């Protein structure tokens, strides 16, 4: 059944557009569930574009993705629910295309296809693709490795991972997807010190989180420029900057699949960092196909800006929600992604997040795909009345398998994220014992306060990510007035180990920035989103140079120990009840006794002791025999053949941690 557009609502009146799109009549008339984009088959391709208020839509076909003139143009026919479509006989695999949309005011706008799954250089033209020819050998048999007892997430940027010439990666693969397919890389090719993928295999992380790998607009493809990539252009297409050939739309798809396949083969699950809260510019393919529909507006019609990037997607509108939900499912299905980290999740509405979680659970099993995000926005966003943002206040009511970054623990441990010189617990500041206890239980069940979730399954415990200062830089700024980021002092090293030990001892999932384990520095730069790759790179020589090499080994020991401790890996709503006792072993200390019972547990109870003071303290231990599992210098004491027993008390050196497991049964 054909329906006519709302010709009476001009694009030049954005306030009227807002009223139109928020009306129930528009939703009933134009919500569409049929396939959109270019649906390829060997015999024909169906092109479908959702543009309900357009007067006309014209399709143009091209031999390349750059500047070649069109080889054919034709008008699309109006179909039901705002869809324009046509079907072309023949095999159009590899053909590029775009649309010209004539709006209700008679103005014509060229646009690529927002529903496209392939494109050419810089995403200017969309591409028809037979996706099966992009599958690497064995792709149909690719499976994620089995879930480990604990999820330890390692965030990295494709370019950061292998850009360093010392990585041992061939020059043509540095900073590209292909680097993730290589085994056997070593520091400067010395054959002794593993880098990149083989280094990760020595570390103990279970998930690799890739910063944005969808097509973004801030850096020209084929250039040597750098950007984090939080600037979406084509949501369902891999970024060509990391491909060996950005012109052939199939190459970027195949090479990202190869990277995921290799990570799976080497024992890692893969998380995709997704940015569904805004587009690079308001003048996007979404806007050009249906002006204003996909964007939130203030009452006067101007664009919302809760992202601080100039626009916010209107996720509460049904076709925008469909677009995002289908995009997530597409990446999970086509690229075998194992989880999704949502940038500024507080700008998305709870209805959308719940539906994404439900759809992933239905397709892959409850909780099989990780879903978490930043439970905040940069600014207020004019969300439609009746919708709720998926921010901090919503966490206790969201599905317990929708997680969030715990900024409360982050700031408690190392100091406020917005104030460089404000310290936290480990670097000279103070912390309430109650808050430290809340951090240990992942802030689950907390009433009010700085952070609150239903269960530890929602908590992402972390100390640093790509945003803001690295953990090392924050510690240096607060503890070393000279700010010598490459000349570590013993005090800063102790504080880093203490911070790592505290985060290790928190319920929830453990997340860290790549290189955090070897004191990654950006020389004090707070946000390096467009700084040179030379500053952002993982410094592989640093990873194997004392004392940072020893710091990395301290992290390794903690990562190997954590899966053995049910007290910390329990994600159930009952996990907070494992915390049995809390006390102060000194002025700037904290002690915690936890129930560590569980299948295969070697220690029925666990004691965590932290001393952030500049002088040592003595801690009285609970009754029983206690084995030292880790201290402030060595995180592998639990691997010794003979248990090292502590008596009724333990000495806590300055700026150190002590992890103990009960070595005798509980009476």
TrEMBL record:
Regions that span the bilayer: none
Keyword hit for NAD: no
Coiled coil: none
E.C. number: 3.2.1.41
Biological process per Gene Ontology, one example term: carbohydrate metabolic process
Keywords linked to the UniProt accession: Glycosidase, Hydrolase
GO MF annotation, one: pullulanase activity
Enzyme class label: hydrolase
InterPro entries per record: GH, GH13_cat_dom, Glyco_hydro_13_N, Glyco_hydro_b, Ig-like_fold, Ig_E-set, pulA_all-beta, PulA_typeI
Highest taxon above the source species: Bacteria
UniProt domain Glycosyl hydrolase family 13 catalytic: residue ranges: 155-542
Pfam family, one: Alpha-amylase
Family (UniProt): Belongs to the glycosyl hydrolase 13 family.
PANTHER family recorded: GLYCOGEN DEBRANCHING ENZYME
Protein name: Type I pullulanase
Organism: Candidatus Gemmiger avistercoris
Gene responsible for this protein: pulA
């Amino acid at each position: 059944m054909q329906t006519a557009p709302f010709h009476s609502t001009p694009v030049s009146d954005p306030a009227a557009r807002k009223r139109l799109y928020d009306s129930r009549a528009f939703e009933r008339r134009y919500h569409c569930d049929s396939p959109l984009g270019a649906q390829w088959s060997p015999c024909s391709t169906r092109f479908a574009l959702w543009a309900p208020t357009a007067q006309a839509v014209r399709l143009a076909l091209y031999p390349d993705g750059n500047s070649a003139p069109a080889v054919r143009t034709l008008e699309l026919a109006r179909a039901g629910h705002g869809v324009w479509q046509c079907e072309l006989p023949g095999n159009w695999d590899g053909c590029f295309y775009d649309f010209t949309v004539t709006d209700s005011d008679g103005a014509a706008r060229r646009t690529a296809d927002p529903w496209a799954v392939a494109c050419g250089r810089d995403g200017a033209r969309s591409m028809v693709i037979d996706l099966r020819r992009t599958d690497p050998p064995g792709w149909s048999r690719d499976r994620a490795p089995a879930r480990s007892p604990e999820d330890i997430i390692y965030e990295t940027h494709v370019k950061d991972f292998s850009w360093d010439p010392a990585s041992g990666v061939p020059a043509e693969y540095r900073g590209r997807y292909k680097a993730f397919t290589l085994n056997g890389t070593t520091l400067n090719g010395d054959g002794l010190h593993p880098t990149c993928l083989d280094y990760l295999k020595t570390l103990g992380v279970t998930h690799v989180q890739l910063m944005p790998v969808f097509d973004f607009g801030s850096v020209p493809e084929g250039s040597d420029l750098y950007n984090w990539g939080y600037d979406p252009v084509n949501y369902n297409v891999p970024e060509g900057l990391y491909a060996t050939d950005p012109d052939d739309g199939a190459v970027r798809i195949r090479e990202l699949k190869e990277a995921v396949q290799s990570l799976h083969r080497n024992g890692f699950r893969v998380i995709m960092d997704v940015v569904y809260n805004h587009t690079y510019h308001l003048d996007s393919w979404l806007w050009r196909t249906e002006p204003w529909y996909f964007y939130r507006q203030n009452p006067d019609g101007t664009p919302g800006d809760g992202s601080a990037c100039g626009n916010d997607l209107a996720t509460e509108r049904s076709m925008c929600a469909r677009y995002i939900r289908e995009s997530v499912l597409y990446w999970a299905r086509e690229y075998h992604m194992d989880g999704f980290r949502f940038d500024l999740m507080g700008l998305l509405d709870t209805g959308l997040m719940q539906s994404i979680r439900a759809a992933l659970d239905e397709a892959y099993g409850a909780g099989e795909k990780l879903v978490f995000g930043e439970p905040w926005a940069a600014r207020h966003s004019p969300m439609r009345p009746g919708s709720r943002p998926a921010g901090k206040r919503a966490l206790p009511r969201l599905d317990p398998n929708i997680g969030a970054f715990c900024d409360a623990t982050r700031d408690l441990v190392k100091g406020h994220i917005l104030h460089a010189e404000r310290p936290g617990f480990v670097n000279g500041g103070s912390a309430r014992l109650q808050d430290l206890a809340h951090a240990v239980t992942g802030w689950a069940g907390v009433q009010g306060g700085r952070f609150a979730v239903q269960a530890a399954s929602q908590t992402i415990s972390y100390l640093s990510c790509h945003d803001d200062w690295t953990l090392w830089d924050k510690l240096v700024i607060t503890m070393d007035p000279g700010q010598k980021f490459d000349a570590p002092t013993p005090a800063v090293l102790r504080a880093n180990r203490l911070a790592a030990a505290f985060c290790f001892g928190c319920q929830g999932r453990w997340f860290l920035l790549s290189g955090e384990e070897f004191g990654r520095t950006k020389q004090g730069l707070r946000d390096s989103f467009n700084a040179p790759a030379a500053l952002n790179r993982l410094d592989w020589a640093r990873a194997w140079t004392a004392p940072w090499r020893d710091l990395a080994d301290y992290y390794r020991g903690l990562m190997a120990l954590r899966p053995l401790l049910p007290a910390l890996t329990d994600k159930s709503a009952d996990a907070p009840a494992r915390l049995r006792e809390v006390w102060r072993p000194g002025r700037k200390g904290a002690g915690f006794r936890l129930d560590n019972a569980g299948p295969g547990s070697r220690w029925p109870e666990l004691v965590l002791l932290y001393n952030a003071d500049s002088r040592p303290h003595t801690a009285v231990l609970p009754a029983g025999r206690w084995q030292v599992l880790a201290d402030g210098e060595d995180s592998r004491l639990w691997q010794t053949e003979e248990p090292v027993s502590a008596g009724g008390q333990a000495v806590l050196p300055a700026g150190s941690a002590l992890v103990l497991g009960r070595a005798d049964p509980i009476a």
